[in-house]
Design brief:
Shape: rod-shaped
Oligomer: single chain
Strand content: 15-25%
Distance between the termini: 142 Å
Order of helices and strands: HEEHEE
Number of helices: 2
Structural class: alpha+beta
Number of strands: 4
């Protein structure tokens, strides 16, 4: 007699396929989750590395900014020193002129005349003095005219004080000091 299989083989096959399907879905979910977490951790690592690099760059930029500020301070200090050096050089050039001016004032003054004040502003010199005769002031003007070191003389005024043999003349003169060959004309 023929054998008839009355077992529900179709139901078993269906159950087996269902199980395999759920296992495949579970495996896909697990693989998808693993890929998602792996990708998330990978990009978090990249972001973390980039943030570390950014922090390092910010630190280096701050150091460089401090160095730039220090260099600017040095530049300001250098400019101040250069200005001081220029002033010192100018003073070194002008130093012998004071001596030359007083020496020339002694040479141009006739006897019987003395100075009460000497004021120098740049190259302009203004003197005031007293003499026993007004003619000596004229002689002083002639001496200034003949001088190598002084020029541009002008008489500010002569006033007589006192009377008789004790009379004195007070006078004021303006002149300019001639620059030496090595000096600049523009020094004031």
């Amino acid at each position: 007699m023929p054998r008839i299989n009355l077992l529900p083989w179709r139901d078993e096959l269906r159950q087996k396929r269902k199980k395999e399907f759920f296992l495949a879905i579970l495996a896909a979910v697990l693989v998808g989750g693993a890929l998602t977490f792996g990708t998330k951790f990978f990009y978090q690592g990249l972001i973390s590395n980039q943030e570390n690099l950014n922090d390092m760059l910010r630190t280096e930029i701050a150091k460089l900014d401090a160095q730039i500020a220090e260099i600017e301070g040095f530049e300001i200090q250098k400019n101040r020193l250069l200005e001081r050096m220029a002033i010192i050089e100018e003073l070194q050039v002008l130093r012998p002129e004071v001596v030359r001016l007083f020496d020339e004032l002694v040479n141009i003054m006739p006897s019987g005349t003395y100075l009460t004040s000497v004021v120098q502003q740049g190259r302009n010199v203004e003197v005031a003095g007293i003499t026993d005769a007004a003619g000596r002031v004229a002689a002083m003007l002639n001496n200034i005219e003949d001088s190598e070191w002084l020029n541009g003389e002008s008489l500010v005024g002569i006033t007589t004080t006192g009377s008789g043999p004790l009379a004195e003349d007070e006078f004021g003169l303006r002149m300019q000091q001639v620059p030496t060959d090595g000096e600049e004309e523009g020094i004031q």
